[in-house]
Amino acid sequence: MAKRTRMTEMEAYAVKTRQSEPVGSRGKGTLLLERKASGAIQAYYRERTSDSDKRLPLGTLAKKPRVGTDEQSLDGIRGEALRISVEAAAAGGIAKYLEHISVQQVAAAASRAATAALEEAERLERFRLAEIEAARGSFHDLFLDYIESRRVKATPGVVKELERLLKTNMQEPHPEVMRMKARDIRADHILTILNPIWERGSKVQADRMRSFLVAAFNHGLTAESVVGRSNAKTYSLEINPAAMVKVDKVSAPVERALSDAELKQFWETVQSTGGIGPVMALLFKFVISTGGQRIKNLIETTWGDYDLDAGTVLLIHRKGRGGQTMSRPHLVPLSDRAIAIMRQVREINGDHPWPWTTHGKQPFVISSPTHAVADWLDSKHALIAGAKIPTFSPRDLRRTCTQLMQKHGVDDRLSDLLQAHGQTGVVSRHYRNNPEAALPEKRKAIELFDRALAKALGEVTDTGNVLSISRRKKKNPDGMS
């Protein structure tokens, strides 16, 4: 029998029909090259037995195989044929090798399918978690949600104040904190917001800001359990980080009341103080002229609440947690002094809905009077005989008026009635249903107070006369004059 020999490289690439060569030792199969009609030379590993003739494709023979195709060089095809020859021999023949390869392919396909299924499940889980994460609200979302929850229960002034605090104390100075998820906020982030407020000397506001933050997080802890809630944001809160922060209580001067000299100095110079607008200055004078009405209630009034012919202004007192749902009307008589102030205000803001406004878009925010008093205290006017006037707040004007009435012998009952202080029980319910019922006694109180104020301002002596308003004419059909 002729000895089997290997093809030369020239013979291999020049195959016209088919040509073969042995692979390894005898009995280990042959490498078969076969030229196709297309001209390509297809390579096979071939193994013939007495009862079978099997071929396994090895690829296409090429001198310069192209990447990404089944093309191989002659050496590459020979190496692949030898590998199959060895593995087939180990398996017990080509048939068992093919069977083994089939099993491996099935297992590989199953493994790929399982891997693909796992990857798809992981992708869907990542997507689900991303959706959950996207639905989780930020710190900014939480505070906005809290503000919205207060719109029904709180007064418009409180809502405006919350919106202002969100902008000035939180969003503008700390945007990176506000973008954080609410559930990731910790006590140190709350301190980041509160410390600058405290350090600029606004210690009461720092405590107030903390209270709002505590309330906002308390809202977030329960908001997701409210039936019918329209906000789709979730917060997944577990703790209230604001509740963990403490603000040292400021010993506010609760007994602070201006002396007659201090009151006179404030009255005469507030309108000429830089940084204090004319309407704000008139607001302070109106608060004083009306016997120390609550400045917040006055700020909320519209022109429709004033009847200058009848000499009254109708205030709505809202105190406690009830907000708008617990309100009490308080009809305040106006002295000639107060009416004259309102006529000045009307010349400035008569075209706006509110008397006490700067641009007519909304009334003053509640913190504006505090800032104005601080401007006055920092000015050259806050001196008496070269001595600095001690600090005070707009709320102290109310206490000043109370003590002024006490000093000049105004009955405490009349003083309380004028200031709507401590009006509870049967008396409160009677006046709530009929605010004008107490007007005669209030007129008596404001007349006595105006006399005392005139003396404090140095306008009259103890024997001077002050125009009585007890016989002021009732409202005429023409409305406010």
TrEMBL record:
The keyword DNA-binding belongs to this UniProt entry's keyword annotation: yes
GO biological process: DNA integration; DNA recombination
Molecular function terms, GO-annotated: DNA binding
Keyword Secreted among record annotations: no
Keywords noted in UniProt: DNA integration, DNA recombination, DNA-binding
InterPro entries: DNA_brk_join_enz (IPR011010), Integrase-like_cat_sf (IPR013762), Integrase_catalytic (IPR002104), Integrase_recombinase_N (IPR010998), Phage_Integrase (IPR050808)
Residue stretches in coiled coil: none
Stretches assigned to the Tyr recombinase domain: 253-447
Record's signal peptide: none
The family this protein is said to belong to: Belongs to the 'phage' integrase family.
Protein name, per record: Tyrosine-type recombinase/integrase
